[in-house]
Amino acid sequence: MPEQIDERALLGAAAAAAAEAYAPYSGLRVGAALLAEDGRVFRGCNVENASYGLTVCAERTALLAAVAGGSRAFRGLAVAASGATPPYPCGACRQVLAEFCDPALPILIACIGRLDRAVRTDLGTLLPRAFALREKTE
Ligand code: THU
């Protein structure tokens, strides 16, 4: 992740977002923080549903909040969760992120309580050759 990004702050925002998780079924609290090009940080948490398949992940919640807030360009993503294993974004979230983010998008992944041991990766590593219908123009 480039130096101008405050990794600790972004991870802290992701951990704070996880506190808002609605996860009565899995018990796993996930938070995401997406740093927009303009410096704004959009947070998201997982929101589960009694009809399990309608659950929305933290990463998508954050991305949709950002787009609804007028941001479509991003500099980094942090994800933090309450579990014992680093919360790598699911396949669906990777594809949705690829709609708006370059493969170079830095991604930090950490367990809450062990934010100092975050895994650093990027979108292109997690989802090489994302599906696309057209060249990105906007
Ligand atoms: N979850 C996320 O929030 N992000 C992911 O990338 C994978 C899974 C959530 C969905 C559900 O509420 C819980 O984790 C267990 O699957």
How helix-rich are the residues, as a percent range?
25-40%
Q: Examine the coordinates and then state which fold CATH places here, giving the name of the CATH topology.
A: Cytidine Deaminase, domain 2
CATH superfamily heading: Cytidine Deaminase, domain 2
Number of domains: 1
In words, what does this structure look like?
With 138 residues, this protein is of the alpha+beta class. It has one domain (7-126): Cytidine Deaminase, domain 2 (3-Layer(aba) Sandwich), CATH 3.40.140. The chain has 4 helices and 5 strands, in the order αββαβαββα. The chain has a 5-stranded mixed sheet with strand order 2-1-3-4-5. Strand 3, helix 3 (91-100) and strand 4 form a beta-alpha-beta unit. The two termini are 23 Å apart. The mean pLDDT is 96. It binds tetrahydrodeoxyuridine. The site of tetrahydrodeoxyuridine has 14 residues, from helix 2.
Short description:
The protein has 138 residues and is an alpha+beta fold. The protein has 4 helices and 5 strands. The chain has one domain (7-126): Cytidine Deaminase, domain 2, CATH 3.40.140.10.
Descriptors for this entry?
4 helices, alpha+beta, Cytidine Deaminase, domain 2, single chain, 138 residues, binds tetrahydrodeoxyuridine, 22% strand, 27% helix
